[in-house]
Amino acid sequence: MAYFNWKLLQLPVRVVDYVFSHELAHLIESHHGPAFWRVLDRSLPDWRERQEELRNKAAEAYWCQTEMGQ
User: Fold this and answer.
1) Phi-psi region of 64 (alpha: psi -120 to 50; beta: other; left: phi over 0)
2) Which of 29, 44, 46, 53 gets the most CB atoms within 10 Å of its CB?
């Protein structure tokens, strides 16, 4: 079973699609080996661009403070 963080709601749909596709690919290949990336390549050919967009957007997202009041 996969659980997704509510903070994904802050990201563009195309980036969330990448996260979902990535996690679904783990149902076929559990590790990030070459076979995993081939599975992802077949289901989402532009995954590399979306992965980079995730890196950029995640840095801009509001992830909350570690302690209350900060």
Assistant:
1) left
2) 44
- pTM of the predicted protein model: 0.81
Are 50 and 31 in contact, with CB atoms under 8 Å apart? no
Q: Which residue has the tokens 């076979």?
A: 35
Long-range CB contacts (within 8 A, 24+) of 18-22 = 18/44, 18/47, 18/50, 18/51, 18/53, 18/54, 19/54, 21/47, 22/47
The two tokens of residue 4 are: 């997704």
pLDDT at 27: 95
CB 36 within 8 A of CB 59: no
